[in-house]
Amino acid sequence: MNKNRRSLNGHQLADLAVLIVLADLVIWYFMDARSASGHILNLILILPVTGLTLLLCLIQFIRQFLGHATDTGEVETVKSVLPVIGLFVTYTLTLPWLGFDVGTVLFMALFLWLHGERRLPWVLGYSLSFASLVSLFFTAMLPYPMPMLIFPS
What we know:
Strand content: under 5%
Number of domains: 2
Distance between the termini: 66 Å
Largest sheet: none
Number of helices: 5
Shape: flat
Number of strands: 0
Radius of gyration: 21 Å
Oligomer: single chain
Order of helices and strands: HHHHH
């Protein structure tokens, strides 16, 4: 037997399973979008994102087998993740009333605060600039109006 061959541990097997499921879901979504409409305007964003995602999955898959996968460090406990999940649920449920623009500012600011960022100018500046850019992008790109409080939809 080859003494240099190493076996995969439980975390690596779980990572590989996640990669396989992610790749399957991306392929399924692409095939579904293509069957709905093979027109280039329908696939102009989906095709490059599909290719990039599958390429990244392949790279990470190979890295797992070569042993170059990075250690994720400490795993957060469920108790520390629950506030973020609650924040995201609140964000999505309040979008019709707050609007996408204001809701995103509040979500980003609270998310940064929950993750330990205490510099108020940084929290406000990042939240306002990110939400503004994303809101303007979605307003320009989506063919249907989004609920906005400040930006015109």
